Amino acid sequence: MSELQQEPTATQGEGRYALGEPIADDRSPDSPIGDRWDDRKFSARLVNPANRRKMSVIVVGTGLAGGAAAATLGEAGYHVKSFCFQDTPRRAHSIAAQGGINAAKNYRNDGDSVHRLFYDTVKGGDFRSRESNVHRLAENSLNIIDQCVAQGVPFAREYSGLLDTRSFGGTQVSRTFYARGQTGQQLLLGAYSALERQVAAGTVEMHPRTEMLDLIVVDGRARGIVTRNVLTGEIETYTADTVVLCTGGYGNVYYLSTNAKGSNVTAAWRAHRRGALFANPCYTQIHPTCIPVSGDYQSKLTLMSESLRNDGRVWVPKERGDQRPPNEIPEDERDYYLERQYPAFGNLVPRDIASRAAKNMCDAEYGVGPGGLGVYLDFSDAIERLGRHAVEAKYGNLFEMYQRITGDDPYQVPMRIYPAIHYTMGGLWVDYDLRSTIPGLFVGGEANFSDHGANRLGASALMQGLSDGYFILPTTVADYLADAPFEPVGDDHPAVVEAVESTRERIDKLLSANGNRTVDSFHRELGQLVWDQCGMARSKEGLEKALDRIPSLREEFWRDVKIVGTGDGLNQSLEKAGRVADFMELAELMCLDALHREESCGGHFRVEHQTEDGEAARDDENFSYVAAWEWGGDGHGGRPTLHKEDLDFSYVHPSQRSYK
Amino acid sequence: MKLTLRVWRQKNADTKGKMVKYHLDDVDEDMSFLEMLDVLNEKLTLDDEDPVSFDHDCREGICGSCAMVINGVPHGPQKNTTTCQLHMRHFSDGDTIDVEPWRARAFPVIKDLVTDRSAFDQIIQSGGYVSVNTGSAPDAHATPVDKVSADDAFDAATCIGCGACVAACPNGSSMLFTAAKVTHLGLLPQGQPERATRAINMLAKQDELDFGGCTNVGACAEVCPKGIPLASISRLNHDVLGATLSGARAD
Description:
The complex is a heterodimer of chains A (660) and B (251). Chain A is of the alpha+beta class.
């Protein structure tokens, strides 16, 4: 780490940030990697069952991580307060995950193991994740499937009555368990039912339509949250012995993404402003198989499960600007470029590689459809080989969804796809216990940065959310609570009063701007800027341009945003405005992180750093670290401070990822 | 295309609502129904009028948030399609479209097109789960499940909890919603130990809430965006009858 202790140079961000002390995860045991989680579980302190009900836990977010954590902590007997901004916990965006969930069960006897899942995940993350965390994730994958089956999750089965699996990108084994194209829905409904069972049992107090707007930190510990009841507009405070954030990713900073419209960074960002470090914000994932944009009114992008690449073949015409309908282009005039460039993995290369290859084809003017921003995903071979019936059984609902949105029938005409933002690997920094840098603040699921490095493998998000929620947080939160209950925090505590007042001020400021532009118009402009400069390919020049533009856009936003109505009741424009205001700040940190990281790795592709054949060129000597950023304060004087967590690879030797 | 919209506007639960007419001149046929409403809301905002409130989130037809009665039909004219997945190509230039919230006593209007559907959560709380704590599960392959049952269970489990079934039912009954969950868990071996109590508890809870009774009209299954079959209700009735005969009682 010491050789990296240098002041930022001109190429690393031109003094836009300060360099702080390195940080380290000091909670992962030193034992051999396969023993670490067992050792940590054994060393974790326990709380006497009789004392648990005296201890309270706030869990924000009810997706796979939050729902599972709240349910499990409730089962253990803690007093849990669970929050979501949706009308019911069952609507959290985990519900939209399609493809599946990985687990190293090796039911196929195809050479899978915990170690292989660990290896694939570290490699897939382009050697930018923490080995201890990833190994634990692979271990927990086994229990997750068992737990979900016991809850009644109707996974796909074979005629034997045993569970079916399929392959996903970046792996050569079949370890993805699935429930047609709705795996996220089924897993979330499992967690939701467990959560509602605890609501009925009285251990979990549910607060739907309640949005967290700030974190309350008392004497250095996270002790509560400030919320807005979106129906009444009331600003309320809730306190507890500890706070767990499972509030998802920040893909909506791009405006157009596959995230739900409500997905936002506010909870995590407010915690960041209160002192939690934000790690690797520039690691964002572009999903290769989404439905292309059809017009300016577009409000979101729709993903087509990666599982489609199992049987679909990706191609473009060999001739630039070929305008013929796809079915009239003969076989030998098609370029199946993934199969050509990556013969070993073919159409199943990892997401970052598949996305970039599509972008390269479209940039070189081989793209198809409106604006040339699309490539074909063709099922005609699969239909011929397996029969329409088999293809329908596997992908029926996805084909229907495609047809509903585009009006085209993919059984007859190849789908058109284009990459879109889908997942964010970056998030609040956490140690092995999923503790953030604020004592008492835990972070799970997509909201933390922990397990996927610079690129997440398909079907690993569901695995991580449930691993954090069912198995890790209940253990590590209990360890923290062994010191609880802490002194109660009253509404009149200065920290509570300050948090409430600053929240009110922000809302008043948004409402009183009464400018000329809608929230969405600002969000679109921000999104386009971030997509252009900090999307699939990034350059020093572009990032600097974005860093110069974002502060002025933010200033315009606060001055010129127009929100009709008041804050006293349901006001969806006000809700959106608060979220966009935080995206405006996050966007700047993303671009700074991308600018400072003078290498390409996973989803972060710097055009200046590529190999001769256009692959990501990592710089392990200088950048094998987690970039954890400390909030630098508002205004021009504030600049973030970078803390580096050195990454150590003792079990998987970093190599250039090759899927050829 | 040009459209005339007649949208239910209601300030809050305590005030009376009414249909208000709006004109849109430039609707693209590739827009989704919600994107069309986004365009209306942008226009209203710039005209200093309160935009139309409506629940929505994933816009992929899976979260179950969006809920509009379009021209008298929950989720509109296209079969097996949520409002967010309905596209404007199914309408024609010059059309007048009525947009209303779910109409059911159990789902009171909060504002405009937004209703309170929390009664569904209460039905699930009364038994829509398998009582298994985290960590107590046997190996996933310990109990094989025949494929037909697994597939049927999945079909019932695809319910998104949108409430269209209730909105379509002349009695405002939640029978299809409850039956979908009872069917899903009742078809799986994991759901057997609580099968009888689940059915009667969930039915008792829905009766206790403001839902009406089921009179086998079948409108629910007609509008269900996930195609949950009417036969699930037979299965619920079967389980309730069996449970009652065996002496099980609601908690």
